[in-house]
Amino acid sequence: MAETRPDESAAPDGGAVRLAAVLAALRDGVITADARGCIQSLNPAAERLTGWPAAEALGRPVAEVFRLVGRANRVSLPGPVAEVLASGAATAPTEHTLLNLRTGTELAIVCHAVPLAGPDGGAGALLVFRDRTGERDELERLRESERQLNTILDNVESYIFIKDTDYRYRYANRAVCRLFGADLADIVGRTDADFLDPDALARLHANDRRVIEDGERLVEEEELIGRATGEHCTALTVKLPLRHPDGRIYALCGVATDITWQKRREDQLRLAAGVFDHAQEGILITDADARIVDINPAFTAITGYGRDEALGRNPSFLKSDHHAPEFFADMWASVLETGAWRGEVCNRKKNGESFIEMLAISAVPARQGGRGYFVGVFTDITQFKAQQQRLERIAHYDALTQLPNRVLMADRLHVALAQTRRAGDLMAVCYLDLDEFKPVNDTYGHEAGDQILVEVASRLSLGLRAGDTVARLGGDEFVILLAGLHDLDECRRTLDRLLRTLAKPYGLAGGVGVELSASVGVAVYPLDDTDADTLLRHADQSMYVAKEAGRNRYHLYDPEHDRRARAQREAISRIEEGLLRGEFQLHYQPKVDMRRGRVVGAEALIRWQHPQRGLLPPSEFLPHIDGTELARPVGEWVIDTALAQMAAWRKGGLELPVSVNVSARHLQSPDFTDNLARALARQPGVPPSDLELEILETSALDDLLHVAGLIDGCHRLGVSFALDDFGTGYSSLSYLKRLSAKTLKIDQSFVRDMLHDSEDMAIVDAIVGMAEAFQRRVIAEGVEGVEHGVLLLHLGCDCAQGYAIARPMAAAEIPAWVANWRPDGAWLQAARQHCPKADLPILIAGFDHRHWIDLVAAWIGGAGVAANPPPLNSHACRFGRWYDGPGLARYGALAAFREIGPVHERIHALVRELATLKLAGQDDRAAGRVPELLDQRNSLLLLLERLAREIAARAD
Ligand SMILES: Nc1nc2c(ncn2[C@@H]2O[C@H](COP(=O)(O)OP(=O)(O)OP(=O)(O)O)[C@@H](O)[C@H]2O)c(=O)[nH]1
């Protein structure tokens, strides 16, 4: 702005007028102030800008009219006039905000002041200011617009950049910065070589040159790969030259859009289209209304229908009559409900041929606004199905008879079993095997055999109900499943009918007729309540029973019999295991000569030290192996062990003969004698004569002659035999005669009861007599009381074995027992005394009385009255019955006999007294009188002895 110098005007009037005109014309406000800072003049622009008319403003301080506030902080400022007046120097133009007091309007101004000499010669100041509000707003608008542009540029996905003619970046938006991994400041001034992968550089540069040098506008696809970030994209780049107004190119502007995703999508679509076109599977696409909208070439290849024939139609035009309408209804229900369906469909081709396809339908959900569609993919599996059916036939049917084979039969059996369980009726599994089929084959040839098998299959099939199954397992074996039976009779009737049918002649070529029969094993569920496999096995087992029973019959499986047989097998195998594990041991029961007071031997008795059940007697396990193969190894173990024990005792100075029990099975094993010889040889210190073999007289020695020979063979080795349990068999006499056993062992049942059973005594007496007659030794088993021994001695049997002598004991206890054993006094006395057999009843009457007294004493001494008392009537006790009966008849004439009666009566009277006391609860008083009772007993026994002596004396 030009300085106003009114005081320097050469022509006051003209100059003043011109000056006023100039001032009036100026757009800048001009204010002059005197040295005090009061306004001297202001031009119209100043009036307008400050809002102060000159008339009001003149004379006022400048600061009142021209009020300045800071642009940023809005604090009032002193203004340039004050500065000039204070400093005397001009101020530089400064931008401010001028507040116009009058209007409240805020203006942006630029102002400066210069010193000014007033007309009075005093100092003053000239203030010049211009309204810049319009310019400032424009600038603000420009800045705002730039900010917006940057925001847009930085937030678009596209890469936007400007390069100068040296191909250096002048601008890059944030997308570019991201791709380059650099800030804008680091990009500006650099070239692509600094940021992009070298591979793409040459092509990019060529494009840039076409724009910069040739002025072309390019639209190109470019690969952009950030060197630092590795970020990669395919971009569609638009590059255009930027020109000066004169047309010169000064820069290149590029906008690159990332089309990577679109490219991929395009690739995918291309791929999908390729798959669609080249797939082997037929593909059809329908709209939501099931109208075909597309098919692929394979569809045409499979069905024969071209696009024109298929498009717009419902796929049901392919359907055959194979499926019911419900099939398709279900199919679509599944597609709509689950979005998919998969299965086999039989359709019809254009040429009318039906084919089977494996079809998968998928519902493709609707996009926004759309209705979705369905895709069906199918493969022609007709060939495969045919092959599968062929294989299935081979796998499940017998090629010769066309009957179900074992596999299909097993399947049917499982199903039938489940049905039977549900229905609660019976099912029979019948295992049928032709009888003597091999000879038919051998005689008439394999082909004839085949013909018969086919005929058998046919007869069986025709003879059954629809629900039954007949299957051929192979060879001449068939299985028949009879389901829904109400009772066993129904099963029997069917089997009888089948057997009759099969027994009819089979006609062969040349008029030959062959007759055949069959054997059938039958397991009936649920009588045999087991699983399918086991039923079949049981039927098979029963078929063998039918064969063994004579063929041409059926045999029903018996579960209980099988259970017992199984238990038996398990027991045998456990015993075998026990033998291997050394769980068996021998105990020894001494045998004595009661007359001479000598121990004459011991019987070895097997025991099983069972790990769980403890020590088991032979009755617990030997019956299981009786007659089995295992009898031999167990028997051999017994002989070996007994011989080893005898050798051990001998070493300790005890020479004790031992007898062992030998089972019939063991004895009759072919190499028995040889094995025995080897066992003896293993113990050379033991004389064979010390070993005695006890064989059961009852053990059904089938072949007496053979056994007799065996016994003789063993005798030659020096080993003797005893017939055990003698008297219990049917042909004891015959055995005695035929077998050269040295010893007879009287069975303990006779010995035990002979005191009370005169018949048993008679048997014992007879056996002793026989032994004497045949010159055999005799020994009694089961001697449980001293009286048994006494009676045996009187009967002439000196040797005995039994609990009254010793129980079986461990081998280690035997030497001490032998050393300490003494015979009972009664035996020694009986040995000295001769008692005619006819008078032995006196002896027995004595035993009876003694026994009765023992019972009475025990009853009286026992607590309470729980047990019944022995017979109290003197004629009811065994002694009384003898006395009144046989005794009176034989000895009634003897005084010694008659004396006995009153004593016997007194004893009974006393016992009745004691019983009364006991029953009255006076147990102690009753017990206190027992010695009195024993005294009276002794008196009676003395009288009996006297009677015996008297009789003996008379006999002498
Ligand atoms: N023809 C013919 N024979 C067969 C076939 N399969 C097996 N065999 C014969 O059938 C016979 C079966 O005989 P077996 O059941 O063992 O004996 P079997 O003579 O019937 O005597 P048992 O069954 O004891 O009454 C054998 O000779 C086999 O060679 C076949 O497919 N065709």
UniProtKB/TrEMBL annotation:
Residues 425-559 form the GGDEF domain. This is EAL domain-containing protein. CDD domains: EAL, GGDEF, PAS. It comes from the Bacteria. Residues 15-88, 145-215, 275-314 form the PAS domain. It comes from Parasulfuritortus cantonensis. Residues 218-271, 341-393 form the PAC domain. SMART domains: EAL (SM00052), GGDEF (SM00267), PAS (SM00091). Residues 568-822 form the EAL domain. Gene3D superfamilies: 3.30.70.270, Aspartate receptor, ligand-binding domain, EAL domain, PAS domain. GO terms for molecular function: catalytic activity. Pfam families: CZB, EAL, GGDEF, PAS_4, PAS_9.
